[in-house]
Batch of 4 targets.
Target 1
Amino acid sequence: MSDEKQLKAGERAFNVLLLLLSLGVLYEAYQIAGFDLPNSPGAFPILLGLIMIASMIAILWGQRQHPKLGTQGILDETRQFLHAYLPLAIVVFSAMAIAYLFLLEFLGFIPATAIFLFVSQVYLRHGRLLASLIITAVATGVIYALFKLLFQVYLP
């Protein structure tokens, strides 16, 4: 067996996506204020974007000689990637978080947050309704007290 590190399922594709994200960061950083002066508002984000791009290029360059994963095509590699890195709990919780973002628009912050906390607690605690209800009530109360009463922030 070779001493070289074998790539994991989807590792190279994920790194290419990170490179594209880094290019997006650089583009957005340039949109902040251009790069007129070294102390302009966009200078630090541009520097970070360039560091991200250089890092991803170095990582991808280093991976070019790593042996590929022993898979039978792209579908098998995708299946292995999803199985290893996206377990059902992550997928379900991500879907709940996206639903929460939509609920914010329709219900407002406090009701949407309470619903999200309750549903996520029930899911993550495997159906323990009473404990989830208590945790939701306490957490929502603390959030309300901190933002509305203490910081006097308008909550939509």
Target 2
Amino acid sequence: MGRKSLKESRQPEIVKAFYKLAKKEGLENASIAKTAAMININPSLIIHYFQTREQLVSALIEFILERYLQIFKTPSVSEEDPKKRLLTVIDKLFSQKWNMLFDDSVAYSCYSMVFRDKKVKSKFKEVLDQLRHNLEELIRNANEAGDIEVADPARAADMVFVIVDGAYYYLSLETNKAEYGKRLDYYKIQALQQLNLSAFEAA
């Protein structure tokens, strides 16, 4: 097998360093110069791959999507069972696994930029649309298998993520672990209702 190109290895390295810097100092304080210093390279090398900071932010948003899409990776045992795979993903969405995929402060900083930057807005919408599309496909598969009855999979997927987004935005303010878990379970029940499923069926 041939070696990976320098571009294939350098770009992800730079984006991950930018992400770590944003976690540490805030996205607004993360710069190309600081990112270069973090991984001991010349800033000109970053500019070679990402001509502007805006391009680096765009790559960071794509990195967010890649991390979030991990939630749809399910054990092989559930691959042939559409309902089980759907429920596995719902379980993950309403668990620490989902919330720990990407740092909230960075994600919300990226999101705040959609109000000022049309390109970021478009890129971020791609992220959210992709997540909804993936969940919609799982719902359709379970529908076709006769495991569930959801009249509008696209709408149901959208509503589940409306619950997810609202839940974690609010829960980011909750410091009581017991209350956090209690509310997360409640929000999961609301999501299951969008699929005409009960908590008992999901257990």
Target 3
Amino acid sequence: MLAILLLAAGRSARMNTRDKLLEPVDNNPLLQTLTNRASTTGAQVFVVLPPDRPKRNASLSGTVAQIIIADDAHLGMAHSLRAGIAALPADITAAMVLPADMPEITTKDFAEMHAAHAASPADAILRATSADGTPGHPVIFPRALFADLLTLTGDQGARAILAKHTARLRPVPLPDRHAVTDLDTPDDWDNWRKSRL
């Protein structure tokens, strides 16, 4: 059984007073929008939050999200990932992982990743790419690698694990730059919105 794990415990440190995960996308906060898109797959959706962002928690009210609090999220992305993986139920056989600051990941993209997982060997790692082949997110990890994910530290995410298991990697092309568009600053958001007019 596949779970979707949204990593939403970052600090938005480059957004000044704004929280990028609460920026409006499709008339709702990004975190809510992405959660709702993920839920259309029928997979369980888990969202990793820090302990000190009540507005993010509130934005998930009424969604299917199962919230996981990462008390050590301030130590880096790896700690959010570890908290999420550790909290997954025993019947979860794979986790689709992505940062929650990716507004271009669509309902159809989630469905594409879900279908690719269903059609792949159980030990495969599936990684979304942009249309030109640039690696991005989401990434689907099989349960066989959960123990490795639980050893990560710092802010590097799972790069070392991906590098170690290149033979298992299978790319899943998504349209345009969906898999690599993340927005970290107010200018990023403003420019992105202008590009979509």
Target 4
Amino acid sequence: MVRLRAPVAGREAGAVVGTSSYLNASVPDSRLEIGATAFTPAVWGSGVNTDAKLQLLAYAFDEIGAGQVQFVTDVRNRRSQLAIARLSARYEGTLRRYQKRTDGTVRDSVLFSVIAEEWPVVREGLLERLRSAPMASVARAGETTNASK
């Protein structure tokens, strides 16, 4: 669950504005996925997603020692693909007939990832994006945020 630490888009500090989770962890492979992400449209483009992803990536790489963090999205979800790319995750490929949608159709999925060796540069890029974000509840250089607690 993602809560705001300061008001954003008419929402009060502490308001729940979305979710983003760890999925499909493989301890032997030092790999996990970040997904099941959804935010209220009112905070789209505000930096909230970037802040939440920074916290999830930092915990994955810095605290539990992940070697790779994956992001997987429906091939039809262009908005999500663009948001993932803005995180500096690298496009890995398209997984054909990857899983069934709730309507019973089969989807292709687009896979992105960040690996441990890329994490320091990705972190700096995310912090730079947050410094110029249009909201007050995001990380500043050297700060730790609480947006995704």
